[in-house]
Write a structure and sequence with these properties.
Layout (H helix, E strand, L loop, with lengths): L6 E3 L6 E3 L2 H15 L6 H6 L3 H7 L2 H6 L17 H19 L6 E2 L2 E2 L2 H17 L2 H6 L5 H9 L2
Antiparallel strand pairs: 1-2, 3-4
Helix pairs in contact: 3-5, 5-6
């Protein structure tokens, strides 16, 4: 991830900016695994990546550099969908997660309780899981109570 297309000159300061986020993320994982004396494998590095890594991986500039290979993780990708659909859903999930981390409201529309936004994010998560492997949805049904909790909360 050192392609020249990841470098640009910032107009305001004239400084060279390098978008090496993915490279740094991988290097950080390798360093962490070595420090923990865990064998460094591609699987361990992939599992160690942040949500920011995955959202950035599906942004146009990185996706093109990787010749569209990231989409191959979705074994059940529906026809007519593409990189932007994955990127859109991952970014929605990341923004929702960030709102929760910053203690921002997620179920209000003004002063009205509204669960449309959490339900939308739940659906985005479900779609991503189904695109990876439809059996994942079956596997999480045993402990998934999100829809049930939304319905209960709406009845209050």
């Amino acid at each position: 991830m050192t392609a020249p297309s990841l470098t640009h000159i910032e107009r305001r300061t004239g400084k060279q900016i390098i978008n090496d986020f993915l490279k740094v993320s991988v290097e950080k994982s390798e360093k962490r695994l070595r420090r923990l004396e865990v064998p460094v494998t591609s699987g361990k590095i992939i599992a160690d990546q942040s949500l920011g890594f995955w959202t950035d991986l599906f942004e146009v500039h990185h996706y093109k550099l990787l010749s569209g290979r990231p989409i191959q993780i979705f074994n059940n990708f529906p026809p007519g969908h593409g990189r932007s659909d994955v990127c859109d859903r991952l970014n929605k999930i990341r923004r929702f997660r960030n709102r929760i981390n910053h203690n921002e409201p997620i179920c209000f529309n003004g002063s009205v309780i509204d669960f449309a936004y959490p339900a939308e994010i739940y659906n985005a998560i479900a779609e991503i899981l189904i695109w990876i492997d439809p059996e994942l949805i079956e596997w999480i049904k045993e402990f998934d109570r999100v829809r049930e909790n939304i319905v209960s909360a709406e009845d209050i």
